[in-house]
Structures are given as C-alpha cells and as structure tokens.
Amino acid sequence: MATIEAHGLGKSYGGKPAVADLSFEVRPGSVTGFLGPNGAGKSTTMRLMLGLDNGAGSTTYDGKPFVELRHPMRHVGALLEAKPFHPTRKARNHLRMLAAANGISTARVDEVLALVGLTEVAKAKPKGFSMGMGQRLGLAAALLGEPHTLILDEPANGLDPQGIQWMRLFLKSLAAEGRSIFVSSHLLSEMALMADHLVVIGKGRLIATGPVEEFVNSSSGNAVIVRTPDASTLADLLVGRGAQVVATEPGLLTVVGMTADAVGDLAFDHGVRLHELSHKVATLEEAFLERTAGAEEFQAHAVAEGSAS
Amino acid sequence: MRAAFAYEWVRIRTIRSTWWLTALAVVFGVGISTLFSWAIHHDFTSSGINESDLDGLAPIVTTQLSASGHVPSVVCFILAILGIFAWGHEYRHGMIRASLTALNSRSALWTAKYVVVGIWVAVVATVTMLLSALVATIFLHDFVTVFTAQTWGVIGRQVLYGVLLTWLAMAFTSVTRSQAFALVSIFLWPLLIEVLITFFFQLVPGLRDHTEVLRFLPFSAGSRMVDVLTSSSGTFSDPLSALGGTIVFGGLAAAVMVASYALFEKRDA
Questions:
Q1: Mean pLDDT across the stretch B92-116?
Q2: Residue A132: per-residue pLDDT
Q3: CA angle, A86 then A42 then A11, to 5°
Q4: pLDDT at res. A47
Q5: Which terminus of chain B has fewer Cβ atoms in its 10 Å neighbourhood, N or C?
Q6: Looking at the complex, does the CB of residue B263 fall below 8 Å from at least one CB of chain A?
C-alpha cells in the first residue's frame, strides 16, 4: 500500500501561479479529501501528480514518480475527466484498450463493469451515457488494475443521491482495505461523511492539511450557546476570561473560546442562572468557508436590492 | 513499448471510423481501377491499340491513376484520415489524459501510434493495389501484362507515399491539436494551396523565371514518387526523380514529425 508524497508542486499559466509550492501527504488506509474553491488549482494539482502537466515539484507513490511505474494502472487509478472516452467506442472496448496497456485480463474488464453497475450497457456506445454513467465508466477504468492508490477528480459529479451514497461507501471500503484514496469534491456535506483527512488549498497554495475533525474543530463556528436571564453579567464574566461573546438575541449568548463545561462552572460560581447550555458544532462547510475566505479565484456578488426590475 | 503497441492495436480496431475508412479506401480504390480498366478494355476492343497507350498503363490502373503524376492518390488520402483521427480523437474527446494514465511513457505512446497506424495504412494500401492490379489483369490481360517489375516498384513507392502522407497528417494533427483543421489542411494544401502558388509563379512576371523551384512544393514532389510518365535526369533536377520526390516529401513529413514529438513531450496533456 502506497503513500503519496507531493512535494513543492507548482504550475503557472502566463506568469500567474495556478499552484505554488504545494506539499502534502496522503496516507494508505484513508480517504483524503482535496478541497478548494473553484479555480484553486485542484485539477491542475492532480494532473501534476500524474505527470500530465509539466511543472515544478514531484509526486511519488511509495517513493516512485508516476512515470517510472511499470503498468501504471496497477498502481494508480485516476479519474480526471467527466467523460474520458471516445463517444462511439463501446464501454467494454474502452476498458479493454486500457487493460491491454497494463497486461490486465478481459475477465477483469467484465468484473469492474459489474462492480460499477454497467454490465447491461457494456456493449453500448457511451455517447448516450448520462454524466453519472460516464463517471461510473471512468471509475471502472480507474479500478481496472486494482490499484493501491486512487486519484479522483470530482467523481460524484452527475451522480444521483443513490450513486453518491454508493460512491461514498465504495471509496470508504477501498480505503478500509488499506488503499490511498485522494478525492476532490465540492460536495462538502458528502466530503464530511467520506473523508478522514483533508488537503485544503486556495489560490494554488496550501491552506490546511490534517484530519477532518481537527480542521472542523479549528473553526470559529464551534461555539457554546447560553440562554440566561442575566446575559450582560455572564457576558462580562466570559469576556474577562478571554472568551469572545456575541449577544445573538436578548438573553442568548454565543461564546467562542471556552468549553461548555467552563462556561457552566463560571456561571455556577457567580450565581448566574442558566436556562440553556449547549454546543454548536461547526460544519465542514462553515470551516471551509472560513478558512478559504478571500482565496476564491472567482467571486460572485450579491444581487443588490431592487436591481432586478 | 509492448504495452503501447498493445494499446494502439486495440485502439485502432475498436473504433468504427477505422473500419469505414478502410472499407472506403478499398471500395474506392478497386472501384476506380475497375471502371478505368473496363473503359480501357472497351476502348481498346472497339478502337484498337496505339502503342503509346500502353506506356505505364499497368501502374496507372493499379494506383487509381496517381502513377500518371496528375491525380492525387484517392486511397492514400482516405487512409491519411486514419492518421488524423489517431491524434484527433485524443484531443477532441479528452482521451489523451486517459491514454497517458494508462501509458505513462509519452515517447512509447507517440511511437506506437505512428507505427501501428503506418502498418495499417501500408497493409490496406497494398491490398487495395493488389486487388486493383488483379482487376486490371482480368480486363486487360489481352493487351498488357499488369504484374511487371515496374508495377511492383510503383506499388512499393505508393505504399511508402501513403505511409508518409499519413504520418504527415498525424504529425500536423498532433501539432495543431485540431482534427478539423488538420482534415481541411491535408486536402486544401495539395488541391488548392500548391495550385495557387503555381499560378502565382506563372502570372507574376518577377516569379516567372523561377518556376523551377515549384518542383520542391511538397505535394508536387510527393506525386513524383510514383509518376511513370515523366522521366527525370537527376535526383533533384526538374522534374524531381522518384528518389528526389521521396526525399522532399519525406523530409517534410519527418520535419513535422520531429516538431510533433518535441511538442508532445513538452506540452501539458
């Protein structure tokens, strides 16, 4: 089972850096989510990792660069395009062609077609495939060589909810077998359920890397909600202890920087009556938006009131 | 390298265009030779034979008239489209990234494409000309021997021309990464651009004295590879010899192929 080590990845287009000095590691036995706003450089990074784009830095799979792997599909499976096949080459033939380059048997081709649920359309031309079916065929190609590493760019694109759930469980089961799964997605709720680790980038630079839980816990969206009739007294006490306090509405405080236990103890020690003391746990989306604020390549603006006439 | 050949071998056989272009080349090739043989047979039978009518007749019929030096080879031009598709499909359908994740050696993929497509074109062109020669024998055996050393020589040079034309088309597609542009160019160049240049030289007074350079126009030079009606006094004399034509046309193909390789290695997939 392979560790992916990306070191100093860099790529510029017309002098503008798309990826800059990006280093991270993907460990076996885990799903590592690759997050970043649109235009952050996720796809470019994946292409750099596979030697498809020329740029700075290096990526190794158990110490070997991709271009040095014999029968690469037996080591690294990749899904980079939404429909990476010729529209009139039958699905099974598309896989046979890739298999031929890697010494993989035709029996395995039929096996992966069954695995992704495309047996019935194996002899159909993919030009009639929906986006979800195309993704399944792309995933079948990535799985052909039973690789220890999967690099998947937005694999859930176009899948229906059942397909997304299937993909999540499938990738988690592959990770449980000890494989390294590196997957980008803009479906943050899905990533929260699927990923064990995260690599977060913005404007081509690393913003954060580590366990999902750690990333979410670092968000200021994690807070303690306190409902009390003595809000101003308690707020003063909390601020005195270094917490950040926001009076959300009369009698309701949102406290950041202290645990619920500490808030409760403080209130008790000073005779402040509490009606509610609860945790507000940040979502991955909140943590992501907070950490990538200002790192968007393309920023939309709210429609001004009354502008639509 | 074996992996790249295996990949390309499956690739070329699993796409419908390979088969319809192959069928088109054989049907057109043999069809034209059949029609021409039949017409000649009819003419010779009804009007008699003039000795000069037999000059180069066998290779001309066998090559669908291109050995006359005046008609581009229909078979070779149809087969060259296979070469355009070999690279065109990679870029038009985003296949290149799938190809390069299945085969991580760019030089192996590049080489395998040229070799496999080249062999396919050579085999189809040979079969087409052999069938054409057979048809010519059936119609014209009373008047001319078709399978002569001259015919075999022309068949060999025509196959070489077909392979060079295909490689030129492939290289051009790979450089431009545009199937449509390559398709248009490969037909416009010999049929329009070189004709326009020739007219320019004939009409512009300052250029009229330099028409001898026109023999180096690549497709004009390529046509000299199989021309059996016009003799040449030297390799690069005017007109070029078959060898001279091969060097000029092959030189262009080689130059564009080198550019194609260099760009393929350097560019992002």
A1: 94
A2: 87
A3: 95
A4: 96
A5: N
A6: no
A159-211 pLDDT tens trace: 888 888 988 999 999 999 999 999 998 888 888 889 999 999 998 999 989 99
In sequence order, the 6+-apart residues with CB closer than 8 A to the CB of B124 are B22, B25, B26, B75, B79
| Residue A67 with chain B: CB contacts under 8 Å | 104-105
The C-alpha atoms of residue B73 and residue B162 are separated, in whole angstroms, by: 8
Contact A52 B11 (CB under 8 A): no
Cβ–Cβ < 8 Å for A116, A136 = yes
- DSSP per-residue string spanning chain B: -HHHHHHHHHHHHSSHHHHHHHHHHHHHHHHHHHHHHHHHHHHHHHH---GGGGTTHHHHHHTTTGGGTSS--HHHHHHHHHHHHHHHHHHHTTHHHHHHHH---HHHHHHHHHHHHHHHHHHHHHHHHHHHHHHHHHHHTTT--SS-HHHHHHHHHHHHHHHHHHHHHHHHHHHH--HHHHHHHHHHIIIIIHHHHHHHHHHSHHHHTTGGGGGGSHHHHHHTTT--SS--SSTTSSS--HHHHHHHHHHHHHHHHHHHHHHHHHS--
DSSP state of A51: T
Which domains are present in chain A?
4-217 (3.40.50.300), 223-280 (3.30.70)
- Interchain proximity B101–A96, CB inside 8 Å: no
Query: What's residue A302's pLDDT?
Result: 57
Q: Which of A52, A71, A81 sits opposite B268 (nearest CB)?
A: A52
A-B contacts (CB, under 8 Å) = 87
How far off is chain B from A156, nearest CA to CA, in Å? 18
Answer yes or no: is pLDDT of A82 > 80: no
In the predicted structure, residue A299 carries a pLDDT above the cut 70 = no
Per-residue pLDDT tens for A14-46? Answer: 889 999 999 999 999 999 999 998 888 999 999
Chain A residues inside the 8 Å CB shell of B105: 67
Q: Given the DSSP bridges, would you call strands A30-35 and A180-184 parallel, antiparallel or unpaired?
A: parallel
Full-model pTM = 0.86
Q: In this complex, do A87 and B93 lie within 8 Å of one another by their Cβ atoms?
A: yes
- CA distances to A131, A134, A141, B43, B109 from A81, rounded to whole Å, are 11, 9, 12, 60, 20
ipTM, 2 dp: 0.86
Q: What is the pLDDT of residue A264?
A: 95
